[in-house]
Design brief:
Elements: E1 3-7, H1 16-29, E2 34-38, H2 44-48, H3 60-65, H4 70-73, E3 75-78, E4 81-84, H5 93-98, H6 110-115, E5 123-127, H7 134-142, E6 145-150, H8 156-173, E7 179-188, H9 193-208, E8 218-219, H10 222-226, H11 243-255
Parallel strand pairs: 1-5, 1-6, 2-4, 2-5, 6-7, 7-8
Antiparallel strand pairs: 3-4
Bound molecules: adenosine-5'-triphosphate and magnesium ion (MG).
Length: about 260
Amino acid sequence: MANIIAIANNKGGVLKTSLSVNLAGLFATHGKKVLIVDGDNQGNVSLSFGENPDTFESTIYDVMIGSAEAKDSIVNLYEGIDVLPANDDLQFLEFDVLTNRNKYKKPFQLLKDSLSSLKGYDVIIVDGPPNLGLMAGNILNFTHEVLIPFQPEKYSMRSLVKMLNFIVDFREKINPSLQVKGVVATLVDRRTALHDQILKECRKYCLLNHITLYDTVIPRSIRGASGVAYENLPVTLIQNQNSLKTAYSQLFEELNLS
Ligand SMILES: Nc1ncnc2c1ncn2[C@@H]1O[C@H](COP(=O)(O)OP(=O)(O)OP(=O)(O)O)[C@@H](O)[C@H]1O
Ligand SMILES: [Mg+2]
């Protein structure tokens, strides 16, 4: 069975999608077959590969409500990388499920059930949405492990602690096998004293609570900010070496996933 890892944080813009697609790129480079499950209606996984999320005939939404099969909705993005895409249709999931409780008796089970028969992947990476709604619940029930991107900002320790507590709660109530893989600091600017201070605080907290905080950080960079504007590919799949690509490669090694 494939190793499943979700990139999750209820905070927006902390590099969930960037981590998802770049780690997928590194897995594929190492000869692994990867499925990225896009769990966010923004459809940014497809966009990261230059694909318009509105062009797909069926998406994760159709799969979860039972009107399409996962295998018929998955599309290839790159050699070794497939996606189960998402687009704005996913916004209807919550309403559909809540107004049809007779049909959807186990609302957190929808993703897990609809992907259970998938075969042929070494790893499944799930890109989470920036909230803790029904989709996030489905993701945390489906995944084995969660990787949490953490952007060191003024109040971000507070929200990291909340997120970690939420996962503990979720494990107790819904998915007993859920594990926190670790926390990865993102959008870090080493010249900013505040970043260093918050990262120290985070390291202390993680140490006390037996949570891995990776040594590798993903730096804030112009290249990252301009995103896929040039190549229509995640940075780990482009030929030229640059500091961002190096950081993702170092993180990949540290994650010890391959
Ligand atoms: N290393 C980087 N430095 C600066 N900006 C970056 C970097 N990497 C990505 N970005 C930009 O930061 C923004 C947020 O990144 P990303 O979409 O990966 O975050 P996210 O957590 O998935 O966001 P959302 O919560 O909206 O899904 C994007 O516009 C992206 O182009
Ligand atoms: Mg995203």
